[in-house]
Each structure stands twice: as C-alpha cells, then as structure tokens.
Request: fold
Amino acid sequence: MVTAFEGLPGGVAVSHLCVYDWPAADGVSGGTPHMHLTCSEAYVVTGGRGSVQTLTTAGYEVTPLVPGTVARFTPGTIHRLVNEDDLRITVLMQNSGLPEAGDAVLTLPPEYLADPQRYAAATAVPADAPEAERARIARARRDLAMEGYRALREAPEGLAAFHRAAAALVRPRLAEWRERWRAGAAAAAAATGEQLDRLEAGDPSHLAQAVVRAEQPSEHGRFGMCGRLDVYKGA
Reply:
C-alpha cells in the first residue's frame, strides 16, 4: 500500500494570529521577542498594518507588514512583531507546529536562561487560569523578554552567548522534537518519495486513495507569544 501523509502539505502547521496591541516600555505595541532553533516560519499578512523587527548576526532590520506581505525567516532569527493598526496574520510553521510546541526561546535576561525552572516559571501561561490572569501573565513575560531584547539590540555581540544559552535550555526536549519531525515533515517527504518511485514504475495506485478534509479552529484566542491565536488540531 502506498504511504499516505494526512497532515497539512509538507508537514507545516497553520494558525491565525491577532497581534497584541499592548504597548511595551518603549511605547511600541506588539508581541514577545523570541527565536526558533530548528524551524523556519512565515507570516502571510491578512489585515491591518505593522512590522516585524528582526535581529541576527547580520544585523537589525525592520520589515513592514501590510495585507499581501509574505515575510519569512530561518532559525536563529530573533523576531518581534509590532502592531501599528489591528495587525492580523496567518502563520505558517515548519515541522507540524513545533515552533508553538516548544521550539522557541524568549529573549529573557541571562539569569532566566541559565535556570530552566526559573525560565519555565516566567514563561508558562496556565491554560486553566481565568482569561484576565492569562492576559496578565502573557503581558508580563512579553515585558520581561523586552529587557533581554533591548540588551541584545544595544550589544549584539551578546548574540553568541544567547544562542548557547538557548541551545542548552532546549536540549532536554530534543528527542521529543525529533519524533514530531519524524511524524511530520520527514513522513511527508518520505511519502512523496514513494509516490515518485511508483509513478516512475508506472504505478498510479495512490491516486485512487485521494481524500478531502476540512476543519475549523480547535481553539480560539489562545495567548501565544506574539498575540491571540486560533489554532487547528490537525496542524
């Protein structure tokens, strides 16, 4: 039987994001600065106006975001979404949603990055807490991440130390991430390879197994790193 992959194309995930309109200490409204370690991410802007600030070893940049913009970046890019006017984005995430499943380190001050328990306590948003309390926690962690982010912008030579601290922080979860990759992007690529092999051999049997699926968000308004998220169970 031909291998089938039932996730979204290529093992990506999709969510809808309404970027926070909370002003930070610098007077700019937006999300929590953070970095992904193994996943690329793309923003498809569907409404409003804003920008994404990025910081890499190549320097600091600001990319304007307006409806129709597709902005994407690779692992190691510290990014901060800025909401200038009701910014709304469809987010495409590599590796079946691994970015929201843990492949991210917020730019907290170094003393938090060096202590996994302290980092976890400062970044967790309890799902069973009242909405007002979840909003307070999400905003507090954003403001704390802004402290580390400002320090990195002022002294970008600190990026190498941040990279090392982030890698050490996530190391205990790498086996879990690898399994998600195997079941997602790796499985999707393997299925395509098998289909190509069969077509090359004159066997189109997988075409008879075609299916159609549709779903609505499984959760609305989750407090994410950059804003309120509508997420999909199958993604």
Notes: The chain is about 35% helix and 25% strand. The helical segments are 94-97, 110-113, 116-123, 131-154, 159-170, 174-200. The CA atoms of residues 112 and 121 lie 9 Å apart.
